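Tokens in:
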């Protein structure tokens, strides 16, 4: 029995305007090169505005989360950040987007793999005036034995540069794990990173996405408005990834055993270029 329940009665893929989910995303060689060499890739038009709006509505209907990341983190300040995590494990519509042909085809092409496992969703809704999120790597927060986790960060509303779309330090995933540095600016600890070019952080339309690695240094500027900066991250791991037992509020709920392959736990949907692989 999988942890996914059917709290909503909406069918996973029966929404007006979601036909795009059944079409592959045409990933270019330049996008793959950019992710592997520059630490990130721009994916314009990953979703259309209508699907992005329905995804936004589904996330807003879900219970928000109260902590932002691993066990040592304080409770999230709802005035600073509204976040929903693991909604795809409660809402088939959100799961249907994450495992759609559209997103799956993009992920496996970017990873240069034949398949991948969908492992987490988390939204980042930053109210106008909310503080910057310092540059950090996600790697040290997560219970994975290897690199190769890719995040699709999807704009859910039109974003101006002033709202603080996600930005990256170019080439930073090649640094290897740098540790849990927040809330210090990581460039204090590793001064050579001051020479790294900042990439991303430009205007995005609702449905546009950006991809980055778990080792990519990423963060966002203060939201100077207008309006709330709304985005969701869908994350995917290599299908050979092994669970190492690091405590994390999302992964703790699946009954994983340290040393177990994620693919052997039925809670993590497997995807390939055509979408969900039934198993
Ligand atoms: O949305 C943001 O500003 C932060 C996103 C982030 O840290 C992530 O996707 O891992």
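Residues out:
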């Amino acid at each position: 029995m999988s942890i996914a329940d059917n709290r909503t009665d909406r069918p996973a893929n029966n929404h007006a305007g979601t036909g795009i989910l059944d079409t592959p995303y045409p990933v270019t060689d330049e996008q793959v090169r950019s992710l592997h060499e520059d630490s990130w890739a721009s994916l314009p038009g990953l979703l259309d505005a209508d699907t992005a709006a329905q995804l936004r509505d589904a996330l807003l209907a879900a219970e928000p989360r109260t902590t932002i990341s691993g066990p040592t983190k304080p409770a999230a300040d709802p005035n600073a950040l509204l976040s929903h995590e693991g909604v795809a494990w409660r809402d088939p519509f959100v799961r249907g987007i994450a495992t759609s042909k559209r997103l799956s085809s993009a992920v496996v092409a970017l990873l240069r793999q034949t398949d991948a496992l969908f492992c987490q969703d988390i939204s980042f809704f930053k109210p106008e005036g909310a503080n910057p999120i310092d540059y950090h790597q996600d790697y040290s927060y997560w219970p994975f034995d290897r690199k190769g986790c890719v995040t699709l960060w999807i704009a859910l509303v039109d974003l101006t540069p002033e709202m603080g779309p996600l930005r990256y330090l170019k080439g930073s995933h090649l640094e290897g794990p740098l540790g849990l540095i927040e809330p210090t600016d990581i460039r204090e600890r590793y001064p050579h990173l001051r020479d790294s070019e900042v990439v991303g952080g430009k205007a995005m339309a609702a449905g546009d996405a950006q991809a980055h690695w778990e080792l990519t240094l990423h963060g966002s500027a203060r939201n100077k408005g207008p309006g709330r900066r709304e985005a969701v991250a869908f994350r995917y791991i290599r299908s050979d990834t092994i669970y190492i037992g690091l405590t994390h509020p999302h992964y703790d709920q699946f009954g994983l055993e340290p040393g177990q392959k994620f693919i052997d736990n039925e809670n993590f949907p497997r995807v390939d270029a055509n979408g969900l692989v039934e198993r």
